[in-house]
Amino acid sequence: MRDDLAYEPLTPKTLPERLKNLDSITSLIGKEAQEWRVTEVGDGNLNLVFVVEGKSATIIVKQALPYVRVVGDSWPLSLKRAFFEHETLSRQAKRDPGSVPQIYYFDKEQAIIAMEMLSPHVILRKKLIAGEYVNGLGKTLGHFCARTAFRGSDLSLPTNEKKKDTALFQGNVELMAISENLVFTDPYFEAEMNHHTQGLEPVVKKLRSDISLKTDAQKILQKFASNTETLLHGDLHSGSVMCTDTETKIIDPEFGFYGPMGFDIGMLISNFLMAYFSQPGHRTENTLEKYQDWILSVIDEIYSAFINEFSNLWHNERQGILFPKSLFEDQGHSSEAALYGVLEQIWSDALGVCGIEMHRRILSLAHNADFEEISDTHVRSKLEARTLMMGRQLILERNQIKDVEAIQMLARKYNSEKHL
Ligand code: SR1
Ligand code: MG
User: Fold this and answer.
1) Please, are residues 51 and 60 in contact by the beta-carbon 8 Å criterion?
2) Does the Cβ of 176 fall within 6 Å of ligand 1?
3) Are residues 200 and 284 in the same domain?
């Protein structure tokens, strides 16, 4: 695309004309732009997403809009998010090779990223609603969280590189502001764009009048805003994961930011818990228990894979300024207790974020299809009430809940309770 063109949103009609002279694209899908089949498939909250099918291949072209798509142009949003998505994707590709789609082309001015079409992959959230299984899901996600958390942190990066990168990503200010408001704050008061299922009011009232809960949610936000431990995906829910029956890829890191190492894994576990609690709205009795058990087993796989891989990297790749070998192993001193302490902190941060994500997806602006697709609001509100109450316990007891087994027990307990 010519450098001197001002930003203009693409349409299926204009896309071929505007991208036809880019070698990085035509070398993949063919030069016959008039024969490209272009479909806009974006169903997320923010961007345009086109599938572009040429003679020899199909690619994805994603373009940021200058506003929040789900709300409209009354909520302007910086195009710079495409830059941060591109920067985050490049780092993730290096830190966990094969985990993210390949990038073919990036245009900062037009906020366009052309990337690999993942096919026959399907958004994980859709699979969880449909009751489908994915082999190796937990392992891939756990490894991704561990590798990106460790390799983007002061445990691994040269300190000058880490500081420079942290400063760069502070520029993703508008997307961080969305999380600061929609995720951490809006669920806990009657914010303008909030909505919730009819009938949920007694539980909503209970949460919004709980001062300890609000205080803890703000403490967790305080960490989000000021603890730049590592580069995170920033929006790692089940809509940011695409799978076949055996392969898992991570997409859409436009919310990339430097924050606490437990953030991504906490948000991820939260979305599995919401999938778990919503299942009675999607399954019949004969498949329900087995599928819910599988979801809980994936949470276990995620965290086991995370701990194993993080520990492996701790032992083999610890070359940053934090917990240096010169201070431990080189002195004949074990660093195991230090590793244990770091993992404990990540777990507690993850639990806090997990609970908050369970709240915001039910009480704030952007809800999950897991619940939204349950048309019977009476059923939906009962399932949401269980989710909200477990979220509360996770936030308040994030320093006491020790392991995944405890999470599984709590999930089963709330799943059998009436909170409405
Ligand atoms: C206005 S954006 C709402 C949500 O969509 C994104 O996917 C993030 O989850 C954000 O919080
Ligand atoms: Mg997204």
Assistant:
1) yes
2) no
3) yes
102 C-beta neighbours (distance < 10 Å), count: 13
In terms of domains, do 240 and 337 share one?
A: yes
Look at residue 2 in the predicted model and tell me its pLDDT: 53
**Angle between the N-to-C axes of helices 263-278 and 377-396, in degrees from 0 to 180, rounded to the nearest 10:** 150
> Closest residue (by CA) to atom 3 of ligand 1?
366
Lookup result for tokens 């190492």: 261
> In this structure, are residues 35 and 54 in contact, taking their beta carbons and an 8 Å threshold?
yes
Q: Is 404 in the pocket of ligand 1 (CB under 6 A)?
A: no
For residues 59 and 130, membership in a common domain is answered with no
Is the pLDDT at 316 greater than 70? The verdict is yes
Which whole-number Å values give the CA distances from 308 to 94, 117, 205, 314, 343, in the listed order?
20, 31, 41, 10, 11
Q: 76: domain range?
A: 15-116
360-385 tens-digit pLDDT? 999 999 999 999 999 999 999 999 99
Between the CA of 44 and the centroid of ligand 1 the distance, in Å, is 8
Q: With a 6 A CB cut-off, is 366 part of the ligand 1 pocket?
A: yes
CATH number for the domain that contains residue 334: 3.90.1200.10
Where among 87, 116, 145 does a domain terminate? 116
Q: Indicate whether 75 pLDDT > 70.
A: yes
> Which H helix or E strand runs over 310?
helix 285-316
Q: 242 has which bridge partners?
A: 123, 249
345 pLDDT tier (thresholds 50, 70, 90): very high
414 within 8 A of 390, measured Cβ to Cβ: yes
Q: Is the pTM of this model over 0.90?
A: yes
Distance 195 CA to ligand 2 centre (A): 20
Q: Are residues 197 and 105 in the same domain?
A: no
Tell me: do 80 and 128 sit in the same domain.
Answer: no
Does 181 sit in the ligand 1 pocket, CB within 6 Å?
no
